[in-house]
Model the fold of this input.
Amino acid sequence: MKKVLTTCTYCGCGCNFYLQVRENEVVGVYPSKEHPISQGILCVKGWNVHEFINHPARLKTPLIRKNGELVPDTWEAALKLIEVRLNSIRKESGPDALAFLSSAKCTNEENYLMMKLARAAAGTNNVDHCARLCHASTVAGLALAFGSGAMTNSINEIEDCDVILVTGSNTTEQHPATGNRIIRAVDKGARLIVADPREIPLVKYACLHIRQRPGTDIALFNGMMKVIIDEKLLDEEYIELRTENIEELKKIVDKYSLEYVEKITGVPAADIKKAARLYASSKKASIIYSMGITQHTCGTDNVLTLANLALLTGHVGFPHSGINPLRGQNNVQGACDMGALPTVFSGYQALSSEDVRKKFAKAWGVDKLPDKAGLTVVEMINAAAEGKLKALYIMGENPMLSDPNTEHVEVGLKKLDFLVVQDIFLTETARLADVVLPGTSFAEKDGTFTNTERRIQRVRKSIDPVGESIPDWQIILKIAKLLGYDMHYDNPSKIMEEIASLTPIYGGVHFDRLKLFGLQWPCPNREHPGTQFLHREAFSRGKGKFSPIEHTPPAEEPDQEFPFILTTGRMYFQFHTGTMTRKTSQLHREHPEGYVEINPADAKALGLRGNCQVKVSTRRGAVITRAQVSTIVPEKIVFMSFHFAEAAANRLTNDALDPKSKIPEFKVCAARIEAVR
Ligand code: SF4
Done:
């Protein structure tokens, strides 16, 4: 049996393992003992990562819609159709009638090529990907506060923290390797504060569980900051030396008295005080957060508030101390780094800068590049529904399950003149396409993923592509050629050479340097060893900036008609839209269907028994699912995961956007629960 070392395709922790290969089939997996994250262990998804690769439902040929049905056809026919349709739409309606969705599942090289395809070949900045739905607010918020929108520290640093504040992150279920480090830290004596409305598994390791009402994080952290200022627990020397705008922050925070904050958040004043004292008085304190913070109409402001808290106490710019947004998918960090975003090129180089546009135009051999900011994910759907966007090219994303307000997504996708989906399975979105192209899984291609701690790591080809599928980077080259733009690369390492030459934070990244440990950006040149933690002596923007932030309520709050708050998230045994995990027997067995968690008091008031069928409705739609009666959720709050098409939580969620980052408010909407008799 052949064994091939590669990087996990599920969460952003980036564990490394060996795929075991027999006769072009991946038959098993075992963890790398030497790798800094996996350290000889994997979570249940990692241990079962091999099963979907050779699943019989893999797409093996292109599909073309004929008489309303998707039927298998040749690559030649599929590419010809794409050439004719994309070129005619571009000619008739202009380049901005086209849009491209890139993929956090695909490699850095593929994401780089996708944004190059959009900009240099199609002539539009309409390129985005699912980071818009998870951490767009992190990128915007941390860039404003520090100058860089990524995890400040490394996963292994967590283990030696004194205090860890986890908020809006169900870490042990969503980022198991990171959750493991938190538990190890507690074992070593760290104090853990969990601020989360749900009683997530980490709560049993915490010395304090704060259950703030969903959508009230700003008030909670402003309240903590007021305690810190009033009790003189702030780090004045650090503030003086390394930050700006403290007076503006103090003016705003002053009104967040404990009584006022308790009224907004529902958190007892004593707990707010305890959390503030614990966090401020420790030396090595880390904040860990995820989508419970980011997926709000005030998502960017939530992130800025956490940045304020860290700056106020001098807890950023050191080992073990910082702000650590955990990226959900294997390469969502990399897809952002590669500029698969409508306003930046790779390495977050601003589209608005003429010098940057000129630099890329010269390197790519085009006269000029479009300067108008492109559409974001939700804006693409809105533009499609309005008939302004005519063609959408989707690589490895499934908006029919992952985007908010699914009914509206379906309207938008059906209104398009032409929809191409490139994927490994016939997803809910691919079923609506005019042409479906078979891409390959991570096991069938070479490239790199960047994990949540900025670690760029190798993905290594283990088997030949299944059926007639083709590695996604090669498909993109073909599509570019159809649009009249030639790109030539012998293999993904050559693409990385180009990325390194144009992207300062990846400047020293070359395949020959990515052995067992990868490299953490910024890595500006060949000699640079990579960067374990950010902002050591100065922030990327110079001084850390305080932003005075006021609490703003969610876009939709409970009322008589919809008296519950619905919040959504993920489960340990499933991943994202279930495209791979639902085709993995062990994972599917453990968590085969969706449900809505409801508190026993609410269940009693509604006459619900455990496991009974219920209808969950919001202003956008309704789904039937099973009631899971549990104290995991507090009264008047219900929770659903979004993995299951049969009870798709995103039929219910609100597509209201954060005006600063355009992230939708997945985490709060008003809902009604009824028994199905
Ligand atoms: Fe894969 Fe994440 Fe599990 Fe590691 S923790 S094996 S990266 S899913």
Q: What stands out?
A: The mean pLDDT is 95.
